[in-house]
Amino acid sequence: LRDWRILKEDYNISSKGGDIPNPLRYWEESNIKKEILDIVQSLGFDEPTPIQRASIPLAMASRDLIGIAKTGSGKTLAYIIPALNYLLQLPHLESRDQIPQVLILVPTRELALQVEKEFKKFTARLNLNIISLIGGHSIEENVNSINLGCEIVVATPGRLLDCYERKMISLAECYYVVLDEADRMIDMGFEVQVLKILKLLPTDQNRFTSKPRNTFMFTATMSPAIQKITKNYLNQPGTLTVGELGT
Ligand code: ADP
Ligand code: MG
């Protein structure tokens, strides 16, 4: 068996922030539910990418994380796979079908649609629903999609707040939250909206898992604004860096 240090060298991963679990050597080592891994494998993803190797065990340990890895390194599945695993372990209550339990915040419509597409490779077979709340869809369309079921919401910050302020959606059950391309959200001027949303999220213990909310942030850089979010809204995160980025 190769140890963590050697694996880190193999995959060019560095980490900091307390006890960081070893990176995955292969998918099965993650304890992700078989029905999810079956889909991963049927999609031809024979082995995890470095950021997936490092992020998935940390997410499975219910730790918050900051992931820094370049474009194209597979960050989407790094949070989608544990998100799906989280949802499948919750009891299914029909009364909660219109209340999101996983929230993904992204800077742009295009990215939201890409993330939705990636999730949809899984959700149909797992009987879960994902929706996008983004500009370019009318508010009526947003209402309709919420009503059809929305365990997973992927949203741009402005449109999510708009829906929240119209009382179309609750954030009270979002115990699994991802800020994807957080640095770009800041660069595009969404800092105020992102902070507003973070303040609306639950801070109590999740009654189904007896654990606090998990917050995952992916970013290319650690600017002061990103560090402020880290300090105020992430709980002792592990920081995972793949390659030389962010240094
Ligand atoms: P990032 O968000 O880091 O820029 P993406 O999540 O968009 O990267 O992934 C980039 C591409 O890599 C996508 O086409 C995705 O399907 C593919 N991909 C993701 N994980 C794997 C994997 N484990 N094996 C092979 N390809 C993968
Ligand atoms: Mg991405």
From TrEMBL:
UniProt domain Helicase ATP-binding: residue ranges: 56-240
Keywords in alphabetical order, please.
Answer: ATP-binding, Helicase, Hydrolase, Nucleotide-binding
Enumerate the GO terms in the molecular function aspect: ATP binding; hydrolase activity; nucleic acid binding; RNA helicase activity
Motif Q motif mapped to chain: 25-53
Where exactly are the transmembrane stretches of this chain?
A: none
Residues annotated as domain DEAD-box RNA helicase Q: 25-53
Q: What is the recorded name of this protein?
A: RNA helicase
Record organism: Komagataella pastoris (Yeast)
The shown range, given as first to last of full length, is: 133 to 379 of 556
